[in-house]
Design a protein that fits this description.
The chain is α+β, with helices and mostly antiparallel strands. It contains 4 helices and 2 strands, in the order H-H-H-E-E-H. The longest helix is centred in the first third of the chain and has 15 residues.
Length: 96
């Protein structure tokens, strides 16, 4: 839509709110994503899977502010725990 396009062009993104998610849950997820993106580039590039679209992507010359990451099978507690252990060997229970 034009509104989404305008938000992306003017601000580089937008926030979609869903009133069925509590503010506490939203804040927790947002906080942990900030923790992830604050990790060093070397850490974010650690191998978590053989699938390229689920690895870290970022620091690209043409789009310097772009970063993305995917977690294989994100609904699996064990897979999220495995991913978290790769990123934070000392553990990060909040990210799970």
């Amino acid at each position: 839509s034009q509104v989404v396009r305008g938000a992306l062009e003017d601000h580089g993104g937008f926030l979609a709110l869903y009133d069925k998610v509590s503010l506490e849950t939203y804040d927790s997820v947002y906080s942990e994503m900030m923790n992830f993106f604050d990790l060093s580039i070397k850490t974010k590039r650690r191998k978590t899977t053989e699938k390229p679209i689920f690895s870290y992507s970022g620091q690209l010359p043409g789009i310097p502010l772009y970063e993305s990451v995917g977690i294989m099978n994100p609904l699996s507690f064990q897979d999220c725990q495995k991913y978290t252990h790769v990123m934070w060997p000392q553990e990060n229970h909040h990210f799970w």
